[in-house]
Amino acid sequence: MKIDLQQIGRKIRQARLSIKKTQQQVADQCGISKSMLSKIENGQTASAVATLSKISDALEVPLSWVLDNRPETDLVLQAKSDRQYRVDDNNSMGYSYELLARPRFANIEPTIVHVTPMDSNYRNEPYTHSQDEFIYILEGSIYLFYDGERHLMEKGDTAYFKGTKPHLFMPVDNEGAEVLTMFMNQVNDSL
C-alpha cells in the first residue's frame, strides 16, 4: 500500500497554516519553488524524502508525522505485514521508502530505503537534508556518493554522516539494494 499523496499534502498544508506561513515563505526556506510546494500540498506530485524532510523542518513537524496517519502513542509496535507504506518513486527519485516506526518521543526515524536496480530510472544528483543519517546495508550493494567521493558499500557495511553534505545512494548492479536508514535530528553541541 502506497502512502496517499493527497494525505501528505493535506498534512503539509495543515501544518503550514497552523504556523501562519505562506507557501512562498516555506518554499523559500526549503529551496524549492512555490509551484512545487503547491503541487505537493495538492497531492499532484511525489517528492523525494529529502524535500519532505526540509518541508517538515520548515513547518517544525516530524517527517514521520507527514508520512504516517496513525494515532500517536508511547509504544510503537509494527508487524511486518503492516509495514506497507512506501513513497512511490515514480521512476524519478530512484528510491522508495518504508517507514519502520514513527516514534514521536525520539529524534530518530528508522526507514528502509529500497534502491532501484541500475537499469531503472533513478535520481543522479546528490541532495542534502538537515538530519544526520546512519545506514546499514541489509541486501545488495550501493555506491554511497558523499561530499564528492564514491564509497562501495556491501551487505553488512555501515556509515554515519551529516545530511547537510551532498550525498546519494546509487545502485551497483541490476539487483537493487535495501538500506536500513536512521534519520536523526542533530543534537545541540552547546549542551
Describe the structure.
The chain is of the alpha+beta class and 191 residues long. It folds into two domains: 5-67, lambda repressor-like DNA-binding domains (434 Repressor (Amino-terminal Domain)), CATH 1.10.260; 80-184, Jelly Rolls. 24% of the residues lie in helices and 27% in strands. The chain is built from five helices and seven strands; from the N terminus they run αααααβββββββ. The protein has helices spanning 5-18, 23-30, 34-41, 49-59, 63-67; strands spanning 95-99, 108-115, 132-146, 149-154, 158-162, 167-171, 177-184. Strands 1, 2, 3, 4, 5, 6 and 7 form a seven-stranded antiparallel β-sheet that branches. A hairpin with a 2-residue loop joins strand 3 and strand 4 (149-154). The protein is globular. The model is unreliable at 88-92 and 187-191 (pLDDT under 50).
Helix/strand layout:
Elements: H1 5-18, H2 23-30, H3 34-41, H4 49-59, H5 63-67, E1 95-99, E2 108-115, E3 132-146, E4 149-154, E5 158-162, E6 167-171, E7 177-184
Antiparallel strand pairs: 1-2, 2-7, 3-4, 3-5, 3-6, 3-7
Helix pairs in contact: 2-3, 2-4
